[in-house]
Write a structure and sequence with these properties.
Helices cover 24% and strands 19% of the residues. The chain is α/β, with parallel strands linked by helices.
């Protein structure tokens, strides 16, 4: 480590002078290990024994990213650890490249920040890797880092890459007395990750052979790839592909895209999904609005956690039961009649469906982790069938479209329901709503016969509806309610009344 850092220093000192701090003591390193609860690897200890971070943050040891002194490392780690919970990790999409190497979370308490860019993004060491990762691997994470890469197997490897970059002259000294990777000024190293052979200093061979040219895929695909991606090599290395509404009929070249994490194919003319069957890294897939009749090819996509199937003629959802990691599924407006496969999806938290029978509605009540439900259409069920909702104990948000209800007692068992969105519905009696802890109620094109009773709700914080609904409730409520959204048209006079009300509410 000493020799490596001496060589890096000799290369950067002419530009930045002595920009690194002196050594950290073994006691300081031990205190950091104790607070975080992780023993540092020898190369990390060795680095801190040489230099306790950047003295001048503008220089930034790691391609302009400032090397954090131990106290700053702990401060950044405490902040991140304090704001992240399980829900946030679920709601913010994260991707590991390669798949399975990094746990796909927004933040992990066992990711230790080594450097930062002052914008909420970190270069860190991963001490809780995925099953295909390595303890101590160098990764990127933070506010803007949805895709997380294994950048190097160790901090020593990454420092060796920095030295090689300096020796090759493939860097730029920026006007603001910093430096960056590559030959374009101000290139963030994390932006360069998309084009680097990773992990650095250890390029791994692909396990699957791919076509060397585009010739076998036809002129249409050849022209598309050359125009949008430049080469077949770049195309098959993409992590995200957005190919919606492009008139695509067949998708043979996608079979070579083994690193894909997100694929959008919505609103095309695709009927055969077979080329997708070996894309084991795929995490998010959008195939809605295609004439697809079978999802058999998807049953082996073990990392898939989001699937959009809406508006397809698919009749059998059975093959999806093997998708153990699936968290979000949109299968509204399909021809799937049997929903029994859903109970095998133990991690499913968000679901969109169309309901045409009591059996389908009952199948939803067998989803223990379901938090967010959208029913695009509800027909063929009676008032008694609605008791299935009583078993949705963890439901936090519910959207229902195109339905009519005499009353809402079927929701009184949903004691965690915070958001209710009704679109083109009608409700004869809304008084049961007072028994539900709804905080956000949106009535878009929805008629409620006795709307005024909602004003008595003890939990309501936000209401959106027509101007007439807003005005009715405004006269009735005895405490502040957020009326900042109106659904539907307003006359100029109505808009002025609404805006005046909002201004008065802000003053109050």
């Amino acid at each position: 480590m000493q020799q490596l850092m001496d060589q890096i220093n000799r290369k950067l000192r002419p530009y930045f002078g002595e920009f690194l701090n002196g050594s950290a003591t073994l006691e300081e390193i031990s205190q950091a290990e104790e607070e975080i609860g992780i023993g540092f690897p020898e190369d990390l200890k060795g680095l801190y024994q040489l230099h306790n971070g950047n003295a001048d943050e503008t220089a930034g040891l790691f391609f302009g990213m400032a090397f954090l002194p131990l106290e700053a490392m702990l401060s950044e780690w405490r902040f991140s650890a304090g704001i992240v919970d399980e829900d946030l990790n679920d709601e913010i999409p994260s991707y590991s490249v390669p798949a399975g190497a990094i746990k796909e979370l927004y933040f992990n308490k066992k990711w230790i920040p080594l450097a930062h860019d002052s914008g909420g993004n970190y270069l860190g060491l991963d001490f809780d890797p995925g099953e295909k990762g390595t303890v101590g691997q160098v990764i990127n994470y933070g506010r803007d880092e949805e895709v997380k890469y294994v950048i190097a197997r160790s901090i020593k490897d990454f420092l060796a890459f920095i030295l090689k970059t300096l020796e090759d002259g493939f860097y730029t000294i920026d006007e603001e007395e910093s430096w960056s990777y590559g030959q374009l000024e101000d290139t963030h190293i994390f932006d360069a990750l998309k084009t680097l052979a990773l992990p650095v200093m250890q390029r791994e061979a692909k396990g699957t052979e791919v076509a060397a040219s585009l010739d076998e895929y036809g002129e249409e695909w050849k022209a598309r790839i050359e125009k949008e991606y430049g080469s077949f090599k770049v195309f098959i290395g993409k992590k995200n592909l957005y190919l919606g509404a492009k008139g695509i009929r067949e998708i043979a070249p996608l079979a070579a895209c083994n690193d894909l994490r997100e694929l959008v194919l919505s609103s095309n003319e695709i009927s055969d999904l077979t080329p997708l069957e070996n894309l084991k890294s795929l995490k998010r897939l959008y195939i809605g609005g295609n004439p697809v009749k079978s999802v058999e090819a998807l049953k082996g996509l073990e990392n898939l956690d989001y699937l959009y199937l809406a508006h397809t003629p698919i009749t059998d959802g059975g093959p999806l039961m093997s998708l153990a990691k699936l968290k979000e599924l949109n299968m509204a407006n399909t021809h799937i009649e049997d929903f029994s496969f859903l109970k095998q999806l133990r991690n499913l938290k968000t679901l969109s469906v169309s309901i045409y029978s009591p059996k389908q509605l009952n199948a939803l009540s067998e989803l223990p982790k379901l938090k967010h439900l959208t029913i695009e259409q509800m027909a063929g069920v009676t008032r008694g069938d609605l008791t299935a909702f009583y078993r949705l104990k963890n439901l936090e948000s519910l959207t229902i479209k195109h339905a009519a209800f005499r009353e809402l007692s079927f929701l009184t068992g949903c004691n965690k329901l915070k958001t209710l969105h009704l679109i083109d519905c009608s409700i004869e009696d809304a008084k049961e709503l007072l028994k539900i802890p709804v905080e956000n109620l949106e009535c878009e094109g929805t008629f409620i016969n006795n709307l005024e009773v909602i004003a008595e709700s003890a939990s309501l914080q936000f209401f959106a509806g027509s101007f007439q609904q807003f005005w009715t409730l405004k006269q009735k409520v005895s405490r502040p309610i957020d009326f900042s959204k109106i659904s539907g048209p307003m006359t100029e006079a109505e808009e002025e009344l609404w805006l005046t009300s909002l201004r008065e509410g802000r003053k109050g």
